[in-house]
Amino acid sequence: AEHIIKNIQWTTCDSFTVHRGWQQIEEYISTWEIHESWLHWSEFLQEEELKYSKRYHYRACFSIPTRRKPIPRATASVYFIIEISKIKPATLPVEVFFTLESSRLIHRPGQCRFREKWLKDIIENKIILMERL
């Protein structure tokens, strides 16, 4: 079955703010096909100054609290970077990419479909590790 890769209209470099970046990450996460039992919170982490761009780092932390376990045993983080070019026209959209905790693979919105299994795998692996310790 073919799946539509969802994305949002990302803001332009000249209208970017840290808060707007956070809002857009929230809007993008809302397009993911994940079960409603997943809860998350997100935050701005830091600004990084590079020669030709500025990068803004964010984290979204996911878990599935239940009535029996309102405090989850483990969480899964997704790290976002919004990059603002210093050399490209400011009217272009920001560059956005994200990685999952424990993975170095870089994903770009609009180029891959987010999989709920990625979050489940991170949490399952953490629980297995905790049980071994």
TrEMBL record:
GO MF term (any one): protein kinase A regulatory subunit binding
A family per Pfam: AKAP28
Transmembrane segments: none
InterPro entries in the record: AKAP (IPR053084), AKAP_28 (IPR025663)
CC annotations in GO: cAMP-dependent protein kinase complex
Full protein name: AKA14 protein
Organism: Caloenas nicobarica
Gene transcribed to yield this protein: Akap14
